[in-house]
Amino acid sequence: MKAIAGSLHLGKATNDNGFGMFRRFLKYKLEEQGKYMITVDRYYASTQTCSVRGTKNPETKDLKVRKWTCPVCGTVHDRDRNSAVNLKQEGIRILEEKNVMVL
Prior knowledge:
The protein is mostly helical. The chain has three helices and two strands, in the order H-H-E-E-H.
């Protein structure tokens, strides 16, 4: 996809199309196996929200901030690990909202 995008001067549109196609195939294959693909809103503040208390810390919008401390509970968070925990919790919440049993 990268070579096609560069040679045809289509750039970002071609790359986005490739990723969209990948997501469609992945969803199709998961549904074949009776599984679900959950998509979390791209604007969900997973890196800014404390995974322990759920409080949002707007000071962490700066991408240079890799570790931060929750002003409410004092938990020290690694930006990427905290984000992963929040995305997992949000995915489970979305599944439960759809009345799907979560193991």
